[in-house]
Amino acid sequence: MAGHVFGRSTAALPTAVAGAGCYIIDAEGRRYLDGSGGAAVSCLGHDHPAVRAALHAQIDKIAFAHTGFFTSEPAEGLADALIDCAPEGIERVYLLSGGSECVEAALKLARQYFLEVGEPKRHRIIARRQSYHGNTLGALAAGGNAWRREKYAPLLAETTHIPPCYAYREQQEGESAEAYGLRAAETLRAEIERLGPETVMAFVAEPVVGATAGAVPPAPGYFQRIREVCDAYGVLLILDEVMCGMGRTGTIFACEQDGIRPDIVTIAKGLGAGYAPIGAMLASSRIYDAIAAGSGSFQHGHTYHGHPLAAAAGGAVLEVLRAPGMMDGVREKGARLQAHLEARLGQHPHVGDLRGRGLFRGIELVADRETKTPFDPNLKLGPKIKKAAMARGLICYPGGGTIDGKHGDHILLAPPFIIEDIQIDALVDMLAGAIDDALAA
Ligand code: PLP
Fold first, then answer.
1. Residue 1: is its pLDDT beyond 60?
2. Does the C-beta of 268 come closer than 6 Å to ligand 1?
3. How far is CA 76 from the centre of its chain?
4. Which of 21, 175, 257, 270 is buried most deeply by CB count within 10 Å?
């Protein structure tokens, strides 16, 4: 459709006009099974009655009251509910409008914390290669997604990146998963020592890496050792659960499965589930108390943060996510999806790895399974798969540069938690067809 929207690219797109369960329907009446929830957003499908009702009810009460003057019932309710299920030690919730804003706020909060506690030299951020933390300049600097950073490199704050925890490519022959996890985590210690521990503020990581590498879970013990290293050097641990949090991996917070407590954790996508733009930065009482005892306010803020409508949507989504059986369902459906992927694609000559947790799954594509050689990036496999999948009525989320920002291809799957077994089967069928269509093109 020709129009005046400044889109992500200049390509023409179908117009989405309606949502029905796991499907998006376009203006031509075509139905697309949302196999990736857009980008791991639509965890409750596209017409959830409870979330819609909460939005309708809130808009009839009050849509907006500036957070410089008022708090609101939906914001208070959502914060209480989040703390009720947050990792131990996390006590405060700062509501924002999306993932990048949450990461920006987390970085600034870390900096202000060290000023409050009298450690002004701490300003350095360590993150990981092959991770993504958002597109605003602070979040982009933290991210280790090489192609996203490249054009803006001169504008980015100083950040150093350690290697990812990426067993498929980094675990050595004869090395156990646990030994690999410890080896990968020790790179953080080396980097802190190299930079000077008294200058390091925070380490930022996605518990399960999302869009940049395709649902890469950590090796066993990795995050526990990361936590120990952060504690040993007084460095804050910021976990970015914008994509992998809010039940996506089968627990409300992804880090629950790794048995660790972050100092700050960010969530977004699945919190609003696509019904409202919302994110949250959650912080420990230690951090909050330092600010309360010091300057008394976090020097940050946006006009729309803590928006009552968005908070109402988030509150309704969280209630559905926390309902009995919901997380069990994510784990069971995730296992079914993985089993189907293995049955259908496990022996495919160009599928190197099938991985993930819960309903967060990644498929890494390779030119050669034995040598794990990636495809030539010039083939632009990702866009071909996306196009072929849409032609078959499937939305999936392919990405390139899986290995180093340039080489490697993966497909990310993150379907709604309400997906039915028969739809899981259809998803895998359409995906397998789309991969073959793209390889043949
Ligand atoms: N952090 C992670 C892990 C993400 O996956 C994303 C988005 O994909 C972001 C941050 C940025 O979120 P947003 O696009 O809502 O700004």
1. no
2. yes
3. 24
4. 270
Q: What are 90's strand-pairing partners?
A: 284
DSSP code, position 36: T
Indicate whether 430 pLDDT > 60. Answer: yes
Residue 279 Cα: closest atom of ligand 1: 15
pLDDT for residue 364:
98
d(CA 303, CA 95): 11
Q: How far apart are CA 255 and CA 224, in angstroms?
A: 10
- Report whether residue 364 contacts ligand 1, using a CB cutoff of 6 Å: no
Q: Is the CB of residue 245 below 6 angstroms from any atom belonging to ligand 1?
A: no
By most ligand atoms within 8 Å of CB, the mutation choice from 206, 242, 255 for ligand 1 is: 242
CB-ligand 1 contact for 414 (6 Å cutoff): no
Strands 23-26 and 31-34: antiparallel
Q: What's the 359 CA to ligand 1 centre distance in angstroms?
A: 18
Cα–Cα distance, 150 to 236 (Å, whole number): 27
Q: What is the distance in A from the centroid of ligand 1 to the CA of 281?
A: 13
Range(s) of the chain covered by CATH 3.90.1150.10: 16-41+325-440
pTM of the model: 0.98
Q: What are phi and psi of 23, to 5 degrees?
A: -110, 145
Quote the ligand 1 centre to 204 CA distance (angstroms): 13
CATH number corresponding to 16-41+325-440: 3.90.1150.10
pLDDT digits (tens, 9 = 90+) for 6-31: 999 999 999 999 999 999 999 999 99
